[in-house]
Amino acid sequence: MFFKNWFYKFDFVAFVLLISNQVFAGNIIDSRFSHTADTSRFVLELETAPSFTYFSLKNPRRLVIDLVDVDKDYNFSDLLLTGNLVSRIRHSTPKSPKDTRLVLELTKKVNVSIFPLDKTDSFEHRLIVEVIDPDPVPVLANNVGPNRDQDIIVVIDAGHGGSDPGSVGPTGTLEKHVTLSIAKKLQDLIDRESGLRTVMTRTDDYYVHPNDRPKIAARENADLLVSIHADAFTTPQPRGGSVWVLSEGRADSELGRLLEQTERSSALLGAAAEVIEDRDTERYFAETIFNMSMDLSRASSYELSNRLIRDMKKVTKMHKRKPQSASLAVLTAPETPSILVEVGFISNPEEEKNLNWAEHRQRLADAMFSSIEAFFRKTPPEGTLWAKLKKDQPSQHKVAVGDSLSLLAQRYGVTIKQIKNENNLTSDVVMVGQVLKIPRA
Q1: Distance between CA atoms of residues 119 and 114, nearest Å
Q2: pLDDT classification of 134: cutoffs 50, 70, 90
Q3: Is the pTM of this model over 0.70?
Q4: Which of 66, 100, 132 is the last residue of a domain?
Q5: Measured distance CA(438)–CA(323) in Å, rounded
Q6: Distance CA 155, CA 143 (A)
Q7: Where are the beta strands (DSSP E) in 196-282?
Q8: Are β-strands 324-326 and 125-132 bridged in parallel, bridged antiparallel, or unpaired?
Q9: Residue 344 within a domain
């Protein structure tokens, strides 16, 4: 009996020691916060796959997240909160000493989406918290006026991301990783050019809703949106790149939807709305402005697409040799020329191999940059530095070391043929010190 009681006591003591010495199953490694368009995104990186529950409270509005068996000592005080939806992130008393309770203090009623991401070679386990504004304040782009940013703004959209991997290649290559890599290479090229500036719809592996991507372009007063993707098919044979623009049908339906937003129509009219008392007349003017704006955007998108196809042909096979049109949500920013670039078929084994090659991705980015630069050299938006430089453009150019006809054509927004015709040149060779007449673009 003594030994039996002693055994039970030993077993109980061992159990208590086990509990007291138990470590947390997973700690928080890192946290990030970002805000794009109408969504605030809070990302936690954890050592283990998260087990969690959450609920909302009113008066004041809060989102409460309980993480099971996670260390509660992580400090969020240095986290920079942007946007206007989340005012503070803090700890609160958890249900269990081994858990952690996070509280997001909210500024208004919101929609919430919370989902985990499993660990990959690129990142640890993640918990993504998206706080979405169900009634965002509409943002109106205004590309002219005395306060126009002098930089030409290019929004670069890396397709897919986060819980949406996009297409998957035969050996497991994910489209979302390829598109982000090319987008960052293009960003680097553009930001190095004086007078150009980029905005990225995503800078890491997280999800941005397709409808939010054109909103970012509108919010940033962008002059161009470039969305980067990699195609896929059910069989491995198809290959080659393509460039897409918004179809007229989708654009017209988008126009109809926007016209239902009376405030947006009035804002577009600006001061003119104050002297127009007839709402039917106001809607007519708004529709006219929208039609003109969207026609100009489609025409600009198509012109850039043709130029880009010519440049991409030097880097990769093209699946489509003319711009294609489709009803794609990412291309629906009415005031912003927008193109979608398919850099190849990731479902084709050879193209998947190429897309995994950093040099090939750099060449694709180079082709996009060359087209974008030439396009804006030729037709810079009013109020930008490049528009001013074009007005002050010299009528002559003295050839320096490293100059070539192709470089001069790109710099001045004209064609090689125009320069040759203007100067009666019979070859593409130019000499250092030679003075060339520059034709007007």
Answers
A1: 16
A2: confident
A3: no
A4: 132
A5: 30
A6: 15
A7: 196-200, 224-231, 242-246
A8: unpaired
A9: yes
> In the numeric block, which tokens belong to residue 107?
């500024």
Residue 153 has pLDDT above 90, yes or no: yes
Instruction: Please answer whether residues 161 and 202 qualify as being in contact, where contact means their C-beta atoms are separated by less than 8 angstroms.
Output: yes
- Using the CB atoms, write b or e for 357-380: b if 16+ within 10 Å: eeebbbbbbbbbbbbbbbbbbbbb
Backbone angles phi, psi at 117, to 5 degrees: -125, 130
Per residue in 16-62, pLDDT (tens digit) is 333 333 444 578 888 889 887 678 889 998 888 889 999 999 999 99
* Strands (E) located in 48-195: 52-57, 62-67, 86-92, 100-106, 111-117, 125-132, 152-158
Return d(Cα 32, Cα 47) in angstroms, integer.
Answer: 16
Exposed / middle / buried, residue 268 (Cβ in 10 Å: 0-12, 13-18, 19+):
buried
Residue 110: pLDDT band (50, 70, 90) is very high
- Looking at the structure, do residues 247 and 186 belong to the same domain, yes or no? yes
List the domain range (segments joined by +) for residue 93: 28-132
Residue 71: inside a domain, yes or no?
yes
pLDDT of residue 286: 59
| DSSP string for 7-43 | HHHHHHHHHHHHHHTPPPSB-EEEEEEEEETTEEEEE
CB proximity list for 165: less than 8 A, separation 6 or greater: 174, 175, 176
**Predicted confidence band of residue 112 (pLDDT cuts 50, 70, 90):** very high
The reported pLDDT for the residue numbered 122 is 58
Q: Which residues of 217-253 are buried (b: 16+ CB within 10 A; e: fewer)?
A: bbbbbbbbbbbbbbbbeeebeebbbbbbbbbeebbee
What is the SS3 assignment for 91?
Answer: strand
Write the CATH number for 73.
2.60.40.3500
Q: How many domains does the chain have?
A: 3
- At 3, the pLDDT band (50, 70, 90 cuts) reads very low
Q: What is the DSSP string of 143-170?
A: --STT--SSEEEEEEE--BTTB---B-T
Q: In this structure, are 102 and 251 located in the same domain? A: no
* Same-domain status, 173 and 304: yes
The candidate with the shortest Cα–Cα distance to 69, out of 105, 28, 30, 103, is 28
